[in-house]
Amino acid sequence: MSTENLFEQLRKDHEMQRDVLDMIIETSGESEARKKMLKVLDELLTSHAKYEEIYFYAPLMEMESTHELARHSVAEHKDIDDLLQKLKDTDMSSSAWLSTAKELKHLVEHHLDEEEQEVFRPAGKFLAEKEKTNLAHQYRDSMQSHRDISI
Ligand SMILES: [Fe+2]
Ligand SMILES: [Fe+2]
User: Fold this and answer.
1) Low pLDDT (below 50) residues in the chain
2) Which of 56, 111, 138, 139 is the most exposed place for a label (fewest CB within 10 A)?
3) E strands, 51-123, in order
4) pLDDT at residue 144, as a whole number
């Protein structure tokens, strides 16, 4: 059983997203590599945002001191989701695909950096130790089925 704390787990998933984003913009046309990377990215972004909202942002939303931070991040999840949807609806063989992928990369990287630099510290301060441990276990268990995604 992993003893990683909540923040280590979230960071690890962020790193995976960064790696896939780096790789996806190196793909071209309607290739198998591009199709595979898009599928992996879709899985990663969707599952991470979902369980992060349930196990990380929900408790932060309930506290006055972290409410605004949580609202901001969840709003960004929606922006990322909308742009991901746009990418999925764009013809892979068109040049618009790569520019939308780059836009998504930029948006996601901004979001991940902001979470790591501006949300984790106050969250670490305001969440009780026991709660962090519980949330880490719940997050990990929920993400488990997505962990074997090979990139
Ligand atoms: Fe997030
Ligand atoms: Fe995150």
Assistant:
1) 1, 150-151
2) 138
3) none
4) 85
Domain boundaries, the chain: 6-144
| Confidence at residue 58, expressed as pLDDT on a 0 to 100 scale | 97
pLDDT for the residue 147: 62
Q: Distance, CA 115 to ligand 1 centroid (Å)? A: 7
The fourth-level CATH superfamily of domain 6-144 is nmb1532 protein domain like (1.20.120.520)
Q: Which pTM value belongs to this model?
A: 0.92
Among all bound ligands, the one having the nearest atom to the CA of 116 is: 2
Instruction: Say how far residue 65 (Cα) sits from the centre of its chain.
Output: 23
Q: According to the model, what pLDDT value does residue 4 have?
A: 76
| 38-59 b/e (C-beta count within 10 Å ≥ 16 → b) | bebbeebbebbbebbbebbbeb
* CA of residue 53 to ligand 1 center, whole Å: 8
Please say whether the beta carbons of 49 and 77 come within 8 A.
yes
CA of 52 to the centre of ligand 1 (A): 6
Q: How far is the CA of 109 from the centre of ligand 2 (A)?
A: 10
The pLDDT assigned to 1 comes to 44
